[in-house]
Specification:
By secondary structure, the chain is of the alpha+beta class. It has six helices and seven strands.
Amino acid sequence: MGTEAFWNSPPDELFKQLDSSANGLTAAAAAAQLAKLPKVKAHNSKWRFVGLFLGQFKSPIIIILLFAAGVSAALGDVPTAAIIFAIVIASGTLGFWQEFHAADAVQKLLALVQITANVVRNGKPQEIPVALVLPGDVFLLHAGDMIPADSRLLESTDLFVNEAALTGEPFPIEKKSGVLPAETQLGQRTNCVFLGTNVVSGTARAVVVHTG
């Protein structure tokens, strides 16, 4: 049986399938997994600037003004064409400047509020970015935590999770470790926690099965 119905597998079997253990992944195993992931190409800042600047001239009004400048130039009214063209360039430059600084501010804000997960690596808890959480990672949960990936509970104490985003259920769901039948529906998988949901109360220890 694979990890498709991971709510139906005993923990020991699940650890074998994930090449992990109750102490989580080793640093070496995590590094090997990360090395196999597709590398995200760095965005070329030069072309980013060019694209952002050219994007300022896509609006219908700007296109009409450029067309009017072209007509004026063709009819020999060079001063009018120059004035219209200067207005368009000034407007585009101002829009580019504002949009660039807004995007830069957003990136800095996202860096400040980066979501992390408390995982166990080499048997010791450590905070890592959610993007670096891997299948086989064992992590700890407390009230207020976001669930970093689809995971199987190993142990829990008075754990209640808000799953409204997945099931529409307005009230927190109690979660407990254990084994459930393979045919158990999403809303009844009480031994699992899922990406995008959050802990309302209680504590738990879980192993990551699926990420992304």
